[in-house]
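User: Run a structure prediction on this.
Assistant: Running it now.
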Amino acid sequence: MSKEIKVQDDSLRLNQDYRHFLTDIKARLQKAQIRAALAANSELIQFYWELGTELNEKQKSHRWGTGFLEQFSHHMREAFPEMQGFSISNLQRMKKFAALYPSFSITAQAVPNYHGDILYG
């Protein structure tokens, strides 16, 4: 039961200022959506690196064997069933990632200016 919004005044649709305003708002929204996606992606990458580092440290200092990853994978998948990424092979990749990059930080990513191009439908 959605309400249909009708434009009462066709002159508003044709008004140059209104078209620029609408284009600007659309572009700013798209840019904000891209920034949010990039921020979420950066946070997850940072988390995976930190988890890989912690897994390496725990396995080394506590001498936990390979069964540790299996158990940890099971518990994480059970706690977060909607998430993917906690398989044993992914956990091993996180450990390798952390080992390959002992000091890791994500730099700010530039957001392109699309000048009103439609990115999302």
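Residues 16-61 form the longest helix (46 residues).
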